[in-house]
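User: We ran a pulldown and think these components assemble together. Before we commit to crystallization trials, I'd like a predicted model of the whole complex to look at. Sequences follow.
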Amino acid sequence: MSFLDIDNVTKSYGNVEVLHRVDIDVQEGEFLVLVGPSGCGKSTLLNMIAGLENITGGNISINGRVVNDVHPSKRNIAMVFQSYALYPNMTVGQNMTFGMEMHGIPKPERDRKLADVAKLLQIENLLDRKPGQLSGGQRQRVAMGRALVRDPDVFLFDEPLSNLDAKLRVDMRTEIKKLHQKLGTTIVYVTHDQIEALTLSTRIAVMNKGYVQQLGTAKEVYDDPANMFVASFMGSPSMNLIPAKIVEDNGALAAEITDASGRPVRLRLSRDGAGVRAHLERRVILGIRPEAITDAEGADRRASNLQVLGNDVAVTEPAGSDTFVTMTLSGKDCIARMRADAEARAGAHFDFTVNMDKAVLFDPETEERIDR
Amino acid sequence: MAIATQDTAVRTGRITRTFIYVVLIFFALFYLLPFFIMVINSVKPLSEITSGNMLALPQDPTFAPWASAWSTAQIGVEATGLKPYFLNSILMVVPAVAISTALGALNGYILTKWRFRGDTILFGLMLFSCFIPFQIVLIPMARILGELGLSGSLPGLILVHVVYGIGFSTLYFRNYYAAFPTELVKSAMIDGAGFFRIFWRIMLPVSGPIAVVCIIWQFTNIWNDFLFGVSFAGLSAQPMTVALNNLVQSSTGVKEYNVHFAGAILAALPTLFVYIVAGRYFVRGLMAGSVKG
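Assistant: Here's a predicted model for the assembly, 665 residues in total across the polymer chains.
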């Protein structure tokens, strides 16, 4: 029995189904991130867990209790909103204890918990201020503090960092992760930022168009994407998706693509299971992460299948820690992520090293993986 | 070169500004002049008015006209002055403003934070009451007051003003609350606050500016109303505006212009007072309500 059980949940507005049979089990202490583009249904799902939206079909249970018809305040959850949703007329302290006050918890206990959480988040000096007098980062802390004092079964975060500037966002991200490790609470976290999803989660549910596309750890989702949507959504720059053909090459299977001048190039595949074999002589999509294409020196030395691919360099973009090198493969722009000192020059020929262990194959029609 | 350009810009600004001030002062004087005439003539003996110049300053200032207008002038058949009617107006305006504002706030809260099917249509229908001319509702209203047994009474008059005021007060509060983040309400729901608790603890404390707008608007309208007062109020419940009319229109004896002026100022004082006390919130609140929503 899982701690938070989302069991075949659907959501419809009138005749329009916006969430289709979502099935996720969350264990106690897990950090589940719901990630996807706008309109994928992730916030709707979160609001359904919170009780702010009705559930059309299926069940949601928290800590062994079905909460479909339970009022939000009685689900023992706490939510941190994107806009922080601090009550403007109350001080920070009043904001944080309002929930406990509504639940009839006596004042001494409220004050004790407030003091504990304020200390944990280092906001003791802000307790008498109004939200209007706080900076974005401070408001964010207060919003989290308000959730923490409730001591809930499940924390719900609705894009809590998207209103912060870039630097603060990274700091708060680390802080949320620390807090989770320290308190071991169960968290469901909604974001559209795949970096946040990868860094924070213990598991990620990648959502699109009301479907959960893939549910797994950051590594599973990143290295082993279930379909082309997950492959292109997770990771920045996103995975190169190159039209290819499966061919037999000296007894092994290879993906045939064309280089910048249109000559065919064959890359031997590391995985040649039945799914790939079934696509022999057929068109597929070859997916390669930018960091799996490097110069010879930067290649992963533990990889079992490194292939050299000579091609013309179209553009190089030095980005400090990395250099991004763009080339054309099968008529598509393809980005390689190299170490800063890689010697690729725009317009010149370069020998790229491709780590085919990391390559994945998709069916161009169904967009599903074929080599799993 | 750069400095010269800047200098020109400043000078242009100064000319425009002077022009704006001249226009503003002209219109301020234009609007203040009638009030000035009312004030100076209300403290003149009648002889000074009848003998000639309305614009002249009083030679022999006296507050007798004010005292007369307040407590001894002939209103209709009795020489009671405006005092009892002033009281009537207060007794009518205060509850009518309070109730219509409170209901407007509640309506605005429901129409924005507890949305339901058809809420925009309902709101649209309520807005009709802002635009329907008073005259149209006179007869239905008289009939309803009769059914309720409130004809000619002060409570009846209050009911009429409340019903008529809800449209505007709902409009104000709905637009104000539309800009109020709904996440706050959701957050309060999760915190365990119910319908009225959210209204009382979260919404009302931030409603100051729009409440002031609504109160000024309702106060001014209800205080200045003549038609409903003259149609629905019995002799004992007549408001100030009706009494003032009776004072000025009285056909017996000499027309005491100085008393009329004093009475007119007395009738206008409460709205003036409310505006001066709360006026700066008025502009602020109008802005706050209209920028978003």
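The two ends of chain B are 47 Å apart (CA to CA). That may be worth checking against your pulldown data before setting up trials.

User: Thanks, that helps.
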